[in-house]
Every structure is written in structure tokens, then in C-alpha cells.
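Quick one, C-alpha cells below. Sequence please?
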């Protein structure tokens, strides 16, 4: 059943809650919820994305940054011959995945590390000097006044 309520007026007056409204509009189906992740602010211009990728090795995960899009994808390598396991119960999800993150302007990926089933991606925001706000002193932009002296 599709939600018939129009969230548009609320979208215009909020910043940063787009995912919440998308969730409400889709009825909370959560179609894209694997693998789970955290986003944290480490410092003013340093952020960290932590993705839970239990069961994946570093060579089975691909992290790609292109323009303002960060893509994390994983595909389990096929089992080698003679390495088949007879599972009685399988609760660890090792299906292929692709997770996309929209990055803000001037954010670059500083590095990625995989440890204990967690992929940690460090992001740094580096605003160019020309784009940073500059304090302008009042009265400093006036050109000197040249008086016109006429001969009397």
C-alpha cells in the first residue's frame, strides 16, 4: 500500500532529513539496508563511515570514489575446489552488495581499512582557500580621492 500523504511541504523546510522522508514514503520497507553502516563526525572536517562487512576479505571489497559519489561494493569469491562446507544453519549474510554514499563538495576519501569485519573509510573536507570565507575590513575598499586643483 502506497502512502498517500504529501511530504513535500516538510521537505522544503528541513535539511538533512531526506532519508527520513524517503523512508516514510516507501512505507519503511528498508529495501536497501545491507550492509549496515555508521557515519560519524570525528572532527570539524573529518568524517568516518564504518560498514559492517563480516565474512568479506579485503580483496572481495571494492571502494570507489568518483566525483561526489563513494561506492562500496562486495562480492564473495567462489569457493575453491575441495573447500565446500556443509552448513547446518547459515545466519551470516555474505551476499553481494553495493552501497552508495553521496559526498558533499570538497570531500575526499583519505583512506580505508578493514579490521574485525568492519570497513572504516575516512573522509576529509578540504575547502580551497579561495572558497573559504574572508573577513573584509570596513573602509578598506575605498579608492583614494584625488582632488582636482584648478589654477585660480
Amino acid at each position: 500500500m502506497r502512502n498517500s500523504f504529501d511530504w513535500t511541504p516538510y521537505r522544503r523546510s528541513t535539511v538533512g532529513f531526506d532519508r527520513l522522508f524517503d523512508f516514510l514514503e516507501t512505507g519503511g520497507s528498508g529495501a536497501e539496508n545491507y550492509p549496515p553502516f555508521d557515519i560519524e563526525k570525528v572532527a570539524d572536517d573529518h568524517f568516518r563511515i564504518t560498514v559492517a562487512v563480516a565474512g568479506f576479505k579485503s580483496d572481495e571489497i571494492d571502494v570507489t570514489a568518483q566525483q561526489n559519489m563513494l561506492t562500496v561494493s562486495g562480492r564473495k569469491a567462489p569457493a575453491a575446489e575441495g573447500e565446500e562446507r556443509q552448513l547446518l544453519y547459515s545466519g551470516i549474510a555474505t551476499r553481494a552488495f553495493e552501497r552508495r554514499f553521496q559526498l558533499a563538495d570538497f570531500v575526499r576519501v583519505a583512506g580505508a581499512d578493514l579490521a574485525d569485519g568492519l570497513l572504516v573509510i575516512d573522509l576529509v573536507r578540504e575547502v580551497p582557500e579561495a572558497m573559504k570565507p574572508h573577513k573584509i575590513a570596513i573602509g578598506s575598499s575605498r579608492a583614494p580621492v584625488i582632488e582636482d586643483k584648478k589654477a585660480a
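The mean pLDDT is 80. Residues 34-76+86-131 form a domain with the Immunoglobulin-like fold (CATH 2.60.40.790).
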